Amino acid sequence: MSHTDTAADTTGAKAPVEHLDVLIIGAGLSGIGAAYHLQDKFPRRTYAILESRESIGGTWDLFRYPGIRSDSDMYTLGYRFRPWENDKSIADGPAILEYVKDTAAEHGIDRNIRFRHRVVRAEWSTPNACWTIDAERTDTGETVRFTADFLMSCSGYYRYDEGYTPEFPGIDRFAGQVVHPQKWPEDLDYAGKRVVIIGSGATAVTLAPSMAAEAAHVTMLQRSPTYIISMPAKDKLANKLRRHLPTRLAYALTRLKNASVATAIYQLCQRYPEFMKSRIRQLQEKWLPKGYDIDKHFTPRYNPWDQRLCLVPNGDLFRSIRNDEVSIVTDHIDTFTETGITLKSGDELRADVVVTATGLNLLAFGGMTLAVDGRDIDLTETMAYKGMMLSGVPNFAFVIGYTNASWTLKADLVCEYVCRLLAHMDANGFAQCSPERDSAVDEEPFLDFAAGYVLRSVESFPKQGSKAPWRLRMNYFRDLVTLRHGKIVDDAMRFAPVSTC
Q1: Is the domain 171-237+275-356 a CATH 3.50.50.60 member?
Q2: What pLDDT digit, counting tens, does each position of 164-183 carry?
Q3: Backbone angles phi, psi at 394, to 5 degrees
Q4: Domain boundaries in the chain?
Q5: How many CB atoms lie under 10 A from the CB of residue 341?
Q6: What is the sign of the dihedral through the CA atoms of 286, 289, 290 and 296?
Q7: In this structure, which topology does domain 3-161+361-497 adopt according to CATH?
Q8: ∠ at Cα 349 (345, 353), nearest 5°?
Q9: What's CA 166's distance to the chain center, in Å?
Q10: Do domains 3-161+361-497 and 171-237+275-356 have the same CATH topology?
């Protein structure tokens, strides 16, 4: 239960230290979900959420660019415990943010959030069986200390203070405005202007048709294509079920249906890539103008789902291309000029505004330092257990969602597993649990995914193993069995008895 202790600060004075049963890092989609599961299963346990920013929502509060939306359906991106009742399956950012905030308010979770608290260090003490967590107040710069029996990182893996922008030759000469989607200016005026969006991922394909409504013309400049398919913005079956069935039952059935379809598409892409390439091309031929160069602009060098498949609601990008509002240019940048961009082919793209939708930077656990008994943990020397805990790091769990399906499908399962783990420890008088790696298990990269943002940073992340329970599965239905219903006790997990903090 909660209590307050004291610790000496840098001046030697005693500052109060609050103790919590569970400390959650991050008040985004994952953190709010973790808090719900925890208080639902353990109403007497104390917890707090430390959030480095000044508001709830994480990704959905940070990104404010035009047209921001989910690239997964909301029946799987939404929480298992709280039905998505909006009639749009592919929702915009403000609607998702409202959903997260409403969830926090409805369950009183917002009262347990400490905003502007950025966790910089967390150290585990084996003799005391608890964590000591140091957080920096981003508004005052002071350090606040907490202790906790269990620590859960729900900070995702994106770096929030800056996105990724390559070094573009001559960019300082450009007389127009350069914007990264991660730091979108509220007062950006692009009405009637020529816009060039550099990139081909989910952000670029979202921005292009959204900006085209006001811009004179939008050009999406890509080095190489991405697989892009259209998806209805509304799920007709979901809306029909909601009219005839109780809300929770309709939601559960739609969630199961959509998770099954997403898994089936992924498996087909992995097992029959040539068939899926052909099928995607057939669909694109229907959506794009006759004679459009699909080979050049929409046929990647990799197989479908080796990188994330981009969805566009109701074919909005394809419609913008048909209406000559958006152009796709596949080429490499030679240099920026005062008036635009010169390409390797010698062509020039004139621009008033350039949007660098060039990706994100990854950052493990929000950049905090983990330590065990005075020794800083090198993440690259750890191995992920069941995709949610680290070898040699006691009483610690993290949420990393699927790369091939909705993030929240995995987040809900991780939270459910943590609750089962805590219940097992309570029932057996354990205070500590820690996965211990098997030296016979081979190391593999944490994320087996060919996206640029992963390849740039994956070497700084923990490893995954070559076999269970160290292998990071990207299969919701296999994880459903393992995390929701599987055994808590196995050869890898070590438990230790109660001690006092």
Answers
A1: yes
A2: 788 999 999 999 999 999 88
A3: -75, 150
A4: 3-161+361-497, 171-237+275-356
A5: 26
A6: negative
A7: FAD/NAD(P)-binding domain (3.50.50)
A8: 145
A9: 22
A10: yes
Q: How far is CA 36 from the centre of its chain?
A: 19
End-to-end Cα spacing for the chain: 11
Query: Could you tell me the two tokens for 357?
Result: 């939708």
CA distance 458 to 473: 16
Beta strands of 11-129 (E only): which ranges?
A: 14-25, 47-51, 113-115, 117-125
CA atoms within 13 A on the CB side of 467: 6
Residue-wise pLDDT for 122-142, tens only, equals 999 999 999 999 999 999 999
Residue 411 CA to residue 160 CA, distance in Å, equals 19
- Counting beta carbons within 10 angstroms of the beta carbon of residue 378, is it exposed (0 to 12), middle (13 to 18) or buried (19 or more)? exposed
pLDDT higher than threshold 80 for residue 450: no
Of 73, 395, 119, the closest CA to residue 236 belongs to 73
Contact of 23 with 48, CB cutoff 8 Å: yes
Environment class of 445 (CB within 10 Å of its CB; exposed 0-12, middle 13-18, buried 19+): middle
pTM of the predicted structure, to 2 decimals: 0.91
For residue 174 the two structure tokens come to 């450009």
Query: Would you give the DSSP letter of residue 61?
Result: H
